[in-house]
Amino acid sequence: MNGETRKAAIAAYKKRERPIGIYELRCGPTGEVWVGRTTDLEAIRNRLTFTLDRGSGTVPSLQKAWRDHGSAAFTFTVLEQLEEEETAYILNAQLKERWTYWRDRLDAQAA
Which domains does the chain have, with CATH numbers? Predict the structure, then answer.
């Protein structure tokens, strides 16, 4: 890959539209649910799996369940996808509001 092609690929990656939204992780054996929010639904599943597999998850209850039951015991589901907003402030407010809604509705922990 030459320099120009590489620069074009990087620019295209930065301009891509990322799906924004709310997701859940559910542990089948225990029924526990964790709800999270992200500005990149395509990347969050891999990031969570990577950190939890290495024991560096930031949510102690989720890390413990992952360690006790393994990755095969978990399902990942996108609960809601949001439209991208003009300003980060509005987007963050919407994400927070929908995240709170889903946490309350599912009686879930924060992911």
Answer: 20-110 (3.40.1440.10)
